[in-house]
From TrEMBL:
Pfam families: S1_2, WHD_CvfB. Residues 4-63 form the Conserved virulence factor B first S1 domain. PANTHER family: CONSERVED VIRULENCE FACTOR B (PTHR37296). It comes from Leeuwenhoekiella polynyae. It comes from the Bacteria. Coiled coil: none annotated. Belongs to the CvfB family. This is GntR family transcriptional regulator. InterPro entries: CvfB_fam (IPR014464), CvfB_S1_st (IPR039566), CvfB_WH (IPR040764), NA-bd_OB-fold (IPR012340), WH-like_DNA-bd_sf (IPR036388). Residues 219-275 form the Conserved virulence factor B-like winged helix domain.
């Protein structure tokens, strides 16, 4: 049987009135409804589809891209609440069911929630849960300092932004290292700052130390070129002004302009930074 909640590469086997029947290498079959048939298809063409259960609990394929995959997380909108639970929009015709028992707090129609999706082995149905922390285990950690990772912002606390790292671990971006507007549900790159002895992971939104200087220096150089060679910020500017212009901390800004100055690319004045005349 084809695994639910996953993408499959399949071959178009035959064209029938409900749609296209697809088969895989193991001769498993699934129906792709006609409205999802690719334009100009031919029998034996290979196609990638997502497989889930339709409203009659039958496996069905779609070329739509769901917002979430099995054993993954996504920020989803609750579309309705019934006597048995809530339903959230995950980008497909049939909405994802979230039982009351899987809700941290009772979901409300129109509100957004971070949801984990898994296959309920008892019912063989894809089910959602807003109790996402249950599915995050900081064990057998395979990330280390300086690693670039994928982040999903799960919630905020007095300590900063709590994030899901590579769909697997919990991490924290400390509030004093956040220099951009981020919100729950945002997906963005991050960098491992430290894996603690207690398995907690500190994360940065900018590369740390020397690894950050070169890209920031190049970015500032390009911004100067786009703005006629001068910008009204300098090493004495406030952190807020620097962040407004470049979206980075003052510490990283000073390292970057220091690198540009040493490379004789800019002049630093009392009121601005300016591209240097290369003939000087």
């Amino acid at each position: 049987m084809l695994a639910l909640g996953e993408y499959h590469k399949m071959t178009i086997d035959r064209d029938v009135s409900p749609g296209l029947y697809l088969r895989d290498e193991d001769e498993n079959e699934v129906l792709l409804p006609g409205k999802y048939a690719p334009e100009g298809f031919q029998l034996e063409d290979e196609i990638e589809v997502f497989v889930y259960l339709d409203n009659e609990e039958r496996p069905v394929a779609t070329t739509l891209k769901p917002f979430i995959l099995k054993n993954g997380f996504a920020y989803l909108k609750c579309t309705s609440v019934t006597k048995i639970g809530a339903f959230v929009d995950w980008g497909l015709d049939k909405e994802l069911f979230v039982p009351f028992s899987n809700q941290v707090t009772e979901m409300r129609e129109g509100s957004w929630y971070l949801v984990y999706m898994y296959l309920d082995e008892r019912t063989n149905r894809l089910v959602g849960s807003s109790k996402f922390n249950t599915y995050l285990k900081n064990e057998d950690i395979d990330v280390q300092k300086f690693d670039k990772v994928n982040l999903l912002v799960s919630h905020f606390s007095e300590h900063g932004a709590h994030v899901i790292i590579n769909e697997t671990y919990q991490g924290l971006v400390h509030k004093d290292t956040i220099f951009e507007d981020i919100r729950v549900g945002d997906r963005l790159p991050g960098y491992i700052k430290r894996v603690r002895e207690d398995k907690k992971i500190d994360v940065l939104l900018q590369p740390e130390g020397y690894k950050s200087v070169e890209p920031n220096a190049q970015f500032i150089y390009e911004e100067l070129k786009r703005n006629g060679g001068s910008l009204p910020v300098h090493d004495k500017s406030s952190p807020e002004d620097i962040n407004a212009y470049f979206g980075i901390s003052k510490k990283l800004f000073k390292k970057a302009i220091g690198a540009l100055y040493r490379d004789r690319q800019i002049n630093i004045t009392e009121n601005s930074i300016e591209l240097k005349n290369q003939e000087d």
